[in-house]
Amino acid sequence: MTKPALFLLPGLMCDARMWTPQIAAFEEHHDIQVADFRAFDRFEAMAQSVLDSAPERFALAGHSMGARVAMMIAAMVPERVERLALFDTAAHPPAPHEKDSRGALVALGYAEGMEAVANAWLPPMLHPDHRGDHPVHRELRQMVLDMTPEIYDRQTQALLHRPDARPGLMDIGCPTLIGVGRQDEWSPVSRHEELAALITGSVLTIFEQSGHMAPREAPEAVTAAMRDWLAA
How many angstroms separate the Cα of 22 from the Cα of each of 92, 125, 232? Predict the structure, then answer.
């Protein structure tokens, strides 16, 4: 019997390591594929890469940038997305300050390497308890170090050219989970309340003691929420 397909979409400078706990939890009963967005500089190309490898029907979960791509996919082919999960994200278009703030970090990567980027970018993404020598920080830091300035630049360009996803959210009709870390300073709870208000019937779950990297910072809570979502 064919396993149901579950696609996991990572965020900026992230890969399958962002989803390690969820892969372990669901791989026995689901055909899990983790998207690879390292080569792309536009959301449209990221979305198409998923659709090119996806079956006719599939479940779709995205984190941060990956959740933005998931929203685009759901708008493009609503008949193919059986269920949608959006973690630590938002739907608004780029703010006026983003080009400068994101560009400064990209320039830092080219000038001083990915270690400098990891030092500047990653700690604010995490709950204060998960910074420093915490295992989650160490593992995610290595994930960032394994990227390159060119990858970071491409994905930043994709974020700077993202569309406003809000108009399409009201048309989403599949079971939708919206999740966010309580202490997510990058995409706060209020952004997710906005998403929940736009997507009819969606379930909003807040993960305690977690920053922006909820799938790794609150793995048991995220996995439990996804288990209920997959059974919906």
Answer: 27, 20, 17
Q: Are strands 176-181 and 5-9 parallel, antiparallel or unpaired?
A: unpaired
Question: pLDDT per residue over 63-97, tens digit each?
Answer: 999 999 999 999 999 999 999 999 999 999 999 99
CB 161 within 8 A of CB 43: yes
Domain boundaries of the chain, sorted by first residue: 5-95+164-231, 98-155
Q: Do the Cβ atoms of 211 and 127 come closer than 8 Å?
A: yes
Phi/psi-derived region of residue 54, left when phi > 0, alpha when psi is between -120 and 50, beta in every other case = beta
Tokens of 136: 């989650």
Could you read off the pLDDT of 88-124 as tens digits, one per residue? Answer: 999 999 999 999 999 999 999 999 999 999 999 999 9
Q: Which fold has domain 5-95+164-231?
A: Rossmann fold (3.40.50)
